[in-house]
Amino acid sequence: xxxxxxPESCDNPIRRRVSWRLAxxxxxxxxTISGWAVWLGSLLIGELAGISMKHLIRAKTLIxxxxxxxxxxxxxxxxxxxxxxxxxxxxxxxxxxxxxxxDGTLMPGMFDAHVHLRSPGTADETGMHxxxxxxxxxADMALRAVYYAQQTxxxxxxxxxxxAAPGGTIIDLRKAIDAGYVVGPRIKACGMGLSVTGGHMxxxxxxxxxxxxxxxxxxxxxDGFRQGVREQLKRGADFxxxxxxxxxxxxxxxxxxxxxxxxxxxxxxxxxHAQGVHVAAHTYGPDGVxxxxxxxxxxxxxxHWIDEPVIELMVKHNTTFVPTLTINDVHASYALANxxxxxxxxxxxxxxxxxxxxxxxxxxxxxxxxxTGTDSGFQLENGxxxxxxxxxxxxxxxxxxxxxxxxxxxxxxxxxxDAGRLQAGKYADLVIVDGNxxxxxxxxxxxxxxxxxxxxxxxx
Length: 460
Ligand SMILES: [Zn+2]
What we know:
Number of domains: 2
Helix content: 25-40%
Structural class: alpha/beta
CATH topology of the largest domain: TIM Barrel
Bound molecules: zinc ion
Strand order of the largest sheet: 3-2-1-4-16-17-18
CATH architecture of the largest domain: Alpha-Beta Barrel
Strand content: 15-25%
CATH class of the largest domain: Alpha Beta
Number of strands: 18
Distance between the termini: 10 Å
Protein backbone atom coordinates (compact mmCIF):
# COMPACT_ATOMS: atom_id res chain seq x y z
CA UNK A 1 0.00 0.00 0.00
CA UNK A 2 1.37 3.40 -0.89
CA UNK A 3 2.25 5.54 2.11
CA UNK A 4 0.85 8.95 2.74
CA UNK A 5 1.80 12.01 4.66
CA UNK A 6 -0.46 14.08 6.79
CA PRO A 7 -0.72 17.53 5.30
CA GLU A 8 2.08 20.01 5.84
CA SER A 9 0.04 22.76 4.31
CA CYS A 10 -3.38 22.57 2.82
CA ASP A 11 -3.28 25.39 0.30
CA ASN A 12 -3.73 22.84 -2.47
CA PRO A 13 -7.45 21.98 -2.78
CA ILE A 14 -6.85 18.47 -4.17
CA ARG A 15 -4.48 17.74 -1.37
CA ARG A 16 -6.90 19.13 1.20
CA ARG A 17 -9.76 16.91 -0.01
CA VAL A 18 -7.60 13.77 -0.12
CA SER A 19 -5.92 14.60 3.13
CA TRP A 20 -9.18 14.66 5.12
CA ARG A 21 -10.07 11.16 3.93
CA LEU A 22 -6.59 9.88 4.57
CA ALA A 23 -6.51 11.59 7.92
CA UNK A 24 -9.74 9.92 9.01
CA UNK A 25 -8.47 6.50 7.93
CA UNK A 26 -5.21 7.16 9.63
CA UNK A 27 -6.78 7.90 13.01
CA UNK A 28 -8.90 4.75 12.83
CA UNK A 29 -5.90 2.57 12.02
CA UNK A 30 -3.75 4.18 14.67
CA UNK A 31 -6.47 3.83 17.28
CA THR A 32 -6.61 0.11 16.78
CA ILE A 33 -2.86 -0.45 16.99
CA SER A 34 -1.51 1.99 19.51
CA GLY A 35 -2.28 4.39 22.27
CA TRP A 36 -1.04 7.28 20.20
CA ALA A 37 -4.40 7.96 18.65
CA VAL A 38 -5.28 10.81 20.91
CA TRP A 39 -2.00 12.57 20.36
CA LEU A 40 -2.00 12.05 16.63
CA GLY A 41 -5.65 12.95 16.38
CA SER A 42 -5.15 16.24 18.15
CA LEU A 43 -2.04 16.89 16.09
CA LEU A 44 -4.09 16.34 12.97
CA ILE A 45 -6.97 18.52 14.02
CA GLY A 46 -4.54 21.25 14.97
CA GLU A 47 -2.67 21.03 11.67
CA LEU A 48 -5.82 20.89 9.60
CA ALA A 49 -7.36 23.79 11.43
CA GLY A 50 -4.18 25.76 10.81
CA ILE A 51 -3.54 26.09 14.55
CA SER A 52 0.12 25.93 15.38
CA MET A 53 0.67 23.49 18.24
CA LYS A 54 3.71 22.59 20.26
CA HIS A 55 4.63 18.91 20.44
CA LEU A 56 6.98 17.38 22.97
CA ILE A 57 8.62 13.99 22.44
CA ARG A 58 10.33 12.49 25.49
CA ALA A 59 12.62 9.55 24.73
CA LYS A 60 14.66 7.16 26.81
CA THR A 61 17.59 7.93 24.51
CA LEU A 62 17.99 10.93 22.24
CA ILE A 63 20.71 10.84 19.55
CA UNK A 64 21.44 14.35 18.35
CA UNK A 65 23.05 13.53 14.96
CA UNK A 66 26.25 15.40 15.79
CA UNK A 67 27.79 12.57 17.83
CA UNK A 68 26.08 13.25 21.16
CA UNK A 69 23.30 11.50 23.03
CA UNK A 70 21.07 12.32 25.99
CA UNK A 71 19.48 9.82 28.34
CA UNK A 72 15.89 10.79 29.14
CA UNK A 73 15.97 13.51 26.52
CA UNK A 74 13.19 15.63 25.09
CA UNK A 75 12.55 17.51 21.88
CA UNK A 76 9.97 20.25 21.43
CA UNK A 77 8.76 21.21 17.97
CA UNK A 78 6.14 23.49 16.50
CA UNK A 79 4.99 23.34 12.90
CA UNK A 80 7.98 22.08 10.86
CA UNK A 81 10.81 23.32 13.09
CA UNK A 82 12.51 22.16 16.26
CA UNK A 83 12.13 24.62 19.14
CA UNK A 84 14.25 23.02 21.86
CA UNK A 85 16.28 19.90 22.66
CA UNK A 86 17.70 18.80 26.00
CA UNK A 87 17.14 16.75 29.12
CA UNK A 88 13.45 16.10 29.69
CA UNK A 89 13.77 17.40 33.25
CA UNK A 90 15.17 20.72 31.97
CA UNK A 91 12.65 21.24 29.19
CA UNK A 92 9.57 20.35 31.25
CA UNK A 93 6.18 20.49 29.57
CA UNK A 94 5.41 23.86 27.98
CA UNK A 95 1.83 24.97 28.41
CA UNK A 96 -0.50 23.45 25.83
CA UNK A 97 2.11 21.11 24.39
CA UNK A 98 1.05 17.63 23.30
CA UNK A 99 3.33 15.01 24.85
CA UNK A 100 4.57 11.67 23.52
CA UNK A 101 6.68 9.36 25.66
CA UNK A 102 8.76 6.55 24.22
CA ASP A 103 11.02 3.90 25.73
CA GLY A 104 12.92 3.91 22.47
CA THR A 105 15.25 6.35 20.76
CA LEU A 106 14.64 9.67 19.07
CA MET A 107 17.09 10.63 16.32
CA PRO A 108 17.18 12.81 13.19
CA GLY A 109 15.71 11.55 9.92
CA MET A 110 18.47 9.92 7.87
CA PHE A 111 20.02 10.81 4.51
CA ASP A 112 20.82 8.60 1.54
CA ALA A 113 23.40 10.65 -0.35
CA HIS A 114 23.50 8.44 -3.46
CA VAL A 115 20.29 7.18 -5.05
CA HIS A 116 18.70 6.88 -8.49
CA LEU A 117 15.00 7.37 -7.83
CA ARG A 118 14.06 6.90 -11.47
CA SER A 119 15.19 3.26 -11.74
CA PRO A 120 13.46 0.05 -10.68
CA GLY A 121 16.78 -1.42 -9.53
CA THR A 122 16.69 -4.67 -11.45
CA ALA A 123 19.37 -6.96 -9.99
CA ASP A 124 20.88 -7.94 -13.31
CA GLU A 125 23.43 -6.38 -15.60
CA THR A 126 23.10 -8.70 -18.56
CA GLY A 127 20.07 -7.64 -20.51
CA MET A 128 17.29 -6.24 -18.35
CA HIS A 129 18.97 -2.94 -17.59
CA UNK A 130 19.20 -2.06 -21.28
CA UNK A 131 15.70 -3.35 -21.91
CA UNK A 132 14.38 -1.07 -19.15
CA UNK A 133 16.18 1.92 -20.62
CA UNK A 134 14.69 1.23 -24.01
CA UNK A 135 11.14 0.76 -22.72
CA UNK A 136 10.67 3.37 -20.03
CA UNK A 137 9.43 6.82 -21.01
CA UNK A 138 10.23 9.82 -18.84
CA ALA A 139 6.65 9.69 -17.55
CA ASP A 140 7.14 6.03 -16.53
CA MET A 141 10.27 6.98 -14.68
CA ALA A 142 8.69 9.95 -12.94
CA LEU A 143 5.59 8.03 -11.87
CA ARG A 144 7.59 5.15 -10.48
CA ALA A 145 9.95 7.61 -8.80
CA VAL A 146 6.98 8.94 -6.82
CA TYR A 147 6.48 5.45 -5.36
CA TYR A 148 10.19 4.96 -4.70
CA ALA A 149 10.34 8.37 -3.00
CA GLN A 150 7.45 7.39 -0.70
CA GLN A 151 9.07 4.07 0.17
CA THR A 152 12.38 5.82 0.88
CA UNK A 153 10.74 8.33 3.20
CA UNK A 154 8.84 5.61 5.06
CA UNK A 155 12.12 3.79 5.68
CA UNK A 156 13.39 6.70 7.79
CA UNK A 157 15.31 8.52 5.05
CA UNK A 158 13.92 12.04 5.03
CA UNK A 159 16.48 13.42 2.53
CA UNK A 160 18.18 11.99 -0.55
CA UNK A 161 20.65 13.09 -3.22
CA UNK A 162 19.79 11.80 -6.69
CA UNK A 163 22.80 11.07 -8.90
CA ALA A 164 21.36 11.10 -12.43
CA ALA A 165 18.00 10.87 -14.13
CA PRO A 166 16.97 11.90 -17.65
CA GLY A 167 14.30 14.35 -18.69
CA GLY A 168 14.52 16.40 -15.52
CA THR A 169 12.33 13.73 -13.88
CA ILE A 170 13.81 13.93 -10.40
CA ILE A 171 14.25 17.71 -10.52
CA ASP A 172 10.50 17.89 -11.22
CA LEU A 173 9.76 15.32 -8.51
CA ARG A 174 11.65 17.54 -6.07
CA LYS A 175 9.48 20.47 -7.11
CA ALA A 176 6.27 18.42 -6.75
CA ILE A 177 7.28 17.25 -3.26
CA ASP A 178 8.27 20.74 -2.16
CA ALA A 179 4.95 22.11 -3.45
CA GLY A 180 3.00 19.40 -1.56
CA TYR A 181 1.55 17.56 -4.57
CA VAL A 182 3.25 14.25 -3.76
CA VAL A 183 4.93 12.70 -0.77
CA GLY A 184 8.64 12.13 -0.54
CA PRO A 185 11.91 13.03 1.09
CA ARG A 186 13.76 16.29 0.61
CA ILE A 187 15.68 15.90 -2.65
CA LYS A 188 18.85 17.31 -4.15
CA ALA A 189 19.06 16.29 -7.81
CA CYS A 190 21.81 16.60 -10.41
CA GLY A 191 19.64 16.22 -13.51
CA MET A 192 21.60 14.14 -15.98
CA GLY A 193 25.09 12.90 -15.22
CA LEU A 194 27.85 14.25 -17.46
CA SER A 195 30.18 11.82 -19.19
CA VAL A 196 32.33 11.70 -22.31
CA THR A 197 30.71 10.35 -25.49
CA GLY A 198 30.34 6.60 -25.06
CA GLY A 199 31.48 6.87 -21.45
CA HIS A 200 29.87 5.56 -18.26
CA MET A 201 26.12 6.17 -18.43
CA UNK A 202 26.28 7.11 -22.14
CA UNK A 203 25.14 3.60 -22.83
CA UNK A 204 26.59 2.10 -26.04
CA UNK A 205 25.89 -1.16 -27.83
CA UNK A 206 22.70 -0.13 -29.64
CA UNK A 207 22.07 -1.04 -33.26
CA UNK A 208 22.82 1.82 -35.69
CA UNK A 209 19.15 2.29 -36.45
CA UNK A 210 18.23 2.59 -32.77
CA UNK A 211 18.32 6.05 -31.30
CA UNK A 212 18.54 6.34 -27.50
CA UNK A 213 18.97 10.02 -26.89
CA UNK A 214 19.10 12.14 -23.77
CA UNK A 215 19.55 9.39 -21.19
CA UNK A 216 22.74 11.12 -20.11
CA UNK A 217 24.56 14.26 -21.20
CA UNK A 218 27.68 13.40 -23.21
CA UNK A 219 30.22 16.24 -23.32
CA UNK A 220 33.71 16.50 -24.75
CA UNK A 221 36.52 18.91 -23.98
CA UNK A 222 36.69 21.43 -21.14
CA ASP A 223 34.33 23.82 -22.92
CA GLY A 224 31.91 20.99 -23.65
CA PHE A 225 31.76 20.09 -19.97
CA ARG A 226 31.34 23.76 -19.00
CA GLN A 227 28.36 23.86 -21.33
CA GLY A 228 27.04 20.60 -19.86
CA VAL A 229 27.17 22.10 -16.38
CA ARG A 230 25.34 25.21 -17.54
CA GLU A 231 22.62 23.13 -19.20
CA GLN A 232 21.97 21.00 -16.12
CA LEU A 233 21.84 24.08 -13.88
CA LYS A 234 19.51 25.81 -16.32
CA ARG A 235 17.19 22.78 -16.04
CA GLY A 236 17.19 23.14 -12.25
CA ALA A 237 19.96 20.84 -11.01
CA ASP A 238 21.17 21.32 -7.42
CA PHE A 239 24.66 19.96 -8.08
CA UNK A 240 26.69 18.29 -10.84
CA UNK A 241 27.52 14.62 -11.36
CA UNK A 242 30.58 13.63 -13.40
CA UNK A 243 31.76 10.21 -14.50
CA UNK A 244 35.50 10.84 -14.35
CA UNK A 245 37.03 7.33 -14.07
CA UNK A 246 35.17 4.05 -14.29
CA UNK A 247 35.56 0.42 -13.29
CA UNK A 248 37.50 -1.81 -15.68
CA UNK A 249 37.09 -5.57 -15.70
CA UNK A 250 39.47 -6.65 -18.48
CA UNK A 251 42.79 -6.40 -16.64
CA UNK A 252 43.81 -8.75 -13.81
CA UNK A 253 45.75 -5.96 -12.07
CA UNK A 254 44.25 -2.58 -12.90
CA UNK A 255 40.54 -2.36 -12.14
CA UNK A 256 39.81 1.23 -13.17
CA UNK A 257 40.05 3.29 -16.32
CA UNK A 258 40.18 7.01 -17.16
CA UNK A 259 37.36 8.61 -19.10
CA UNK A 260 37.52 12.37 -18.48
CA UNK A 261 40.78 14.26 -18.94
CA UNK A 262 42.13 16.57 -16.23
CA UNK A 263 41.09 19.56 -18.37
CA UNK A 264 37.54 18.27 -18.67
CA UNK A 265 37.20 17.65 -14.93
CA UNK A 266 38.62 21.08 -14.13
CA UNK A 267 36.37 22.82 -16.69
CA UNK A 268 33.24 21.24 -15.19
CA UNK A 269 34.29 21.88 -11.58
CA UNK A 270 35.30 25.52 -12.22
CA UNK A 271 31.96 26.23 -13.86
CA UNK A 272 29.95 24.45 -11.15
CA HIS A 273 31.81 26.22 -8.35
CA ALA A 274 31.43 29.59 -10.09
CA GLN A 275 27.68 28.93 -10.00
CA GLY A 276 27.78 27.89 -6.34
CA VAL A 277 27.10 24.16 -6.56
CA HIS A 278 29.15 21.11 -5.63
CA VAL A 279 30.44 18.35 -7.90
CA ALA A 280 30.15 14.61 -7.31
CA ALA A 281 32.29 12.14 -9.27
CA HIS A 282 31.78 8.47 -9.98
CA THR A 283 35.40 7.40 -9.78
CA TYR A 284 37.73 4.51 -8.94
CA GLY A 285 41.40 3.86 -8.36
CA PRO A 286 44.09 5.97 -6.70
CA ASP A 287 44.94 7.89 -9.89
CA GLY A 288 41.25 8.36 -10.72
CA VAL A 289 40.38 9.70 -7.28
CA UNK A 290 43.52 11.87 -7.23
CA UNK A 291 42.75 13.39 -10.65
CA UNK A 292 39.18 14.09 -9.56
CA UNK A 293 40.17 15.68 -6.23
CA UNK A 294 43.05 17.70 -7.69
CA UNK A 295 40.76 19.19 -10.34
CA UNK A 296 38.02 20.24 -7.96
CA UNK A 297 35.57 17.38 -7.33
CA UNK A 298 33.89 17.77 -3.93
CA UNK A 299 32.45 14.29 -3.29
CA UNK A 300 34.02 10.99 -4.33
CA UNK A 301 31.41 8.32 -5.11
CA UNK A 302 32.49 4.63 -4.83
CA UNK A 303 36.24 5.37 -4.88
CA HIS A 304 37.73 1.94 -4.19
CA TRP A 305 41.50 1.55 -4.12
CA ILE A 306 42.17 4.88 -2.41
CA ASP A 307 45.71 4.77 -0.97
CA GLU A 308 47.64 6.84 1.61
CA PRO A 309 48.88 9.62 -0.75
CA VAL A 310 45.34 10.09 -2.07
CA ILE A 311 44.02 10.22 1.50
CA GLU A 312 46.44 13.11 2.15
CA LEU A 313 45.17 14.87 -0.97
CA MET A 314 41.55 14.40 0.13
CA VAL A 315 42.33 15.81 3.57
CA LYS A 316 44.08 18.81 1.98
CA HIS A 317 41.12 19.51 -0.33
CA ASN A 318 38.47 18.78 2.30
CA THR A 319 36.92 16.14 0.04
CA THR A 320 33.87 14.13 1.12
CA PHE A 321 33.67 10.36 0.60
CA VAL A 322 30.48 8.47 -0.29
CA PRO A 323 31.61 4.82 -0.28
CA THR A 324 28.33 3.23 -1.54
CA LEU A 325 29.13 0.01 0.33
CA THR A 326 25.64 -1.39 -0.21
CA ILE A 327 25.68 -1.63 -4.00
CA ASN A 328 29.10 -3.25 -3.93
CA ASP A 329 28.14 -5.72 -1.22
CA VAL A 330 24.82 -6.76 -2.74
CA HIS A 331 26.12 -6.77 -6.29
CA ALA A 332 29.21 -8.81 -5.34
CA SER A 333 27.02 -11.44 -3.63
CA TYR A 334 24.88 -11.62 -6.74
CA ALA A 335 27.83 -11.81 -9.14
CA LEU A 336 29.85 -14.34 -7.17
CA ALA A 337 26.87 -16.67 -6.80
CA ASN A 338 25.92 -16.45 -10.48
CA UNK A 339 27.35 -19.34 -12.54
CA UNK A 340 26.77 -17.37 -15.74
CA UNK A 341 28.89 -14.42 -14.62
CA UNK A 342 32.25 -14.20 -16.46
CA UNK A 343 35.35 -14.83 -14.34
CA UNK A 344 36.70 -11.33 -15.03
CA UNK A 345 33.59 -9.82 -13.42
CA UNK A 346 33.91 -12.13 -10.42
CA UNK A 347 37.56 -11.17 -10.08
CA UNK A 348 36.63 -7.48 -10.15
CA UNK A 349 34.09 -8.01 -7.36
CA UNK A 350 36.52 -9.99 -5.20
CA UNK A 351 39.26 -7.37 -5.60
CA UNK A 352 36.98 -4.35 -5.21
CA UNK A 353 35.41 -5.80 -2.04
CA UNK A 354 38.83 -6.27 -0.45
CA UNK A 355 39.86 -2.76 -1.54
CA UNK A 356 36.60 -1.28 -0.21
CA UNK A 357 37.26 -2.30 3.39
CA UNK A 358 40.87 -1.04 3.26
CA UNK A 359 39.75 2.29 1.83
CA UNK A 360 37.11 2.65 4.51
CA UNK A 361 39.63 2.06 7.27
CA UNK A 362 42.06 4.66 5.86
CA UNK A 363 39.29 7.21 5.39
CA UNK A 364 38.04 6.71 8.96
CA UNK A 365 41.52 7.06 10.46
CA UNK A 366 42.14 10.26 8.48
CA UNK A 367 38.85 11.79 9.70
CA UNK A 368 37.58 12.42 6.17
CA UNK A 369 33.89 13.30 6.07
CA UNK A 370 31.90 10.22 5.07
CA UNK A 371 28.26 10.31 3.93
CA THR A 372 25.98 7.30 3.59
CA GLY A 373 24.89 6.48 0.04
CA THR A 374 23.49 3.18 -1.18
CA ASP A 375 23.29 3.63 -4.99
CA SER A 376 19.67 2.45 -4.69
CA GLY A 377 17.93 2.32 -8.05
CA PHE A 378 20.99 0.78 -9.64
CA GLN A 379 20.35 -2.95 -9.11
CA LEU A 380 18.80 -2.23 -5.69
CA GLU A 381 15.18 -1.31 -5.10
CA ASN A 382 14.73 2.17 -3.70
CA GLY A 383 13.45 2.39 -0.12
CA UNK A 384 14.76 -0.98 1.05
CA UNK A 385 18.48 -0.56 1.60
CA UNK A 386 19.12 2.79 3.29
CA UNK A 387 20.01 1.49 6.74
CA UNK A 388 21.97 -1.44 5.32
CA UNK A 389 24.67 1.12 4.47
CA UNK A 390 24.99 1.97 8.18
CA UNK A 391 25.24 -1.73 9.02
CA UNK A 392 28.09 -2.13 6.52
CA UNK A 393 29.88 0.93 7.92
CA UNK A 394 29.77 -0.69 11.35
CA UNK A 395 31.03 -3.95 9.82
CA UNK A 396 33.88 -1.87 8.34
CA UNK A 397 35.00 -0.50 11.72
CA UNK A 398 32.83 2.58 12.33
CA UNK A 399 30.99 2.81 15.64
CA UNK A 400 27.18 2.89 15.42
CA UNK A 401 27.34 6.56 16.48
CA UNK A 402 29.82 7.36 13.67
CA UNK A 403 27.57 5.61 11.16
CA UNK A 404 24.57 7.63 12.38
CA UNK A 405 26.56 10.88 12.13
CA UNK A 406 27.46 9.95 8.52
CA UNK A 407 23.74 9.38 7.81
CA UNK A 408 22.58 12.59 9.48
CA UNK A 409 24.65 15.73 10.16
CA UNK A 410 27.54 14.91 7.77
CA UNK A 411 25.18 14.30 4.87
CA UNK A 412 23.04 17.31 5.81
CA UNK A 413 26.10 19.56 5.75
CA UNK A 414 27.29 18.17 2.43
CA UNK A 415 23.83 18.45 0.84
CA UNK A 416 23.13 21.84 2.48
CA UNK A 417 19.78 20.75 3.92
CA ASP A 418 18.72 22.37 7.19
CA ALA A 419 18.10 19.07 9.00
CA GLY A 420 20.14 16.08 10.21
CA ARG A 421 20.61 17.42 13.73
CA LEU A 422 18.28 17.55 16.72
CA GLN A 423 18.91 21.22 17.28
CA ALA A 424 16.67 24.25 17.72
CA GLY A 425 15.83 25.86 14.38
CA LYS A 426 16.37 22.74 12.23
CA TYR A 427 13.54 20.99 10.38
CA ALA A 428 11.70 18.52 12.59
CA ASP A 429 12.74 15.55 10.41
CA LEU A 430 12.77 12.82 13.02
CA VAL A 431 12.74 9.09 13.58
CA ILE A 432 11.44 7.38 16.72
CA VAL A 433 13.12 3.97 16.91
CA ASP A 434 11.66 1.06 18.85
CA GLY A 435 14.98 0.13 20.48
CA ASN A 436 18.44 1.64 20.59
CA UNK A 437 20.49 1.65 17.36
CA UNK A 438 23.65 2.35 19.39
CA UNK A 439 23.26 -1.19 20.80
CA UNK A 440 22.20 -2.77 17.51
CA UNK A 441 22.45 -0.72 14.32
CA UNK A 442 20.39 -3.28 12.37
CA UNK A 443 17.25 -2.07 14.16
CA UNK A 444 17.25 0.83 11.69
CA UNK A 445 16.87 -1.70 8.87
CA UNK A 446 13.57 -2.90 10.38
CA UNK A 447 11.13 -0.41 8.98
CA UNK A 448 8.22 -1.50 11.17
CA UNK A 449 10.23 -0.36 14.21
CA UNK A 450 10.46 3.22 12.95
CA UNK A 451 8.05 6.14 13.23
CA UNK A 452 9.09 8.83 10.79
CA UNK A 453 8.36 12.55 10.81
CA UNK A 454 9.12 14.95 7.99
CA UNK A 455 8.78 18.62 8.87
CA UNK A 456 7.01 17.70 12.12
CA UNK A 457 4.39 15.57 10.35
CA UNK A 458 4.06 11.81 10.80
CA UNK A 459 4.72 9.67 7.72
CA UNK A 460 3.07 6.29 6.95
ZN1 LIG B 1 25.03 5.71 -8.78
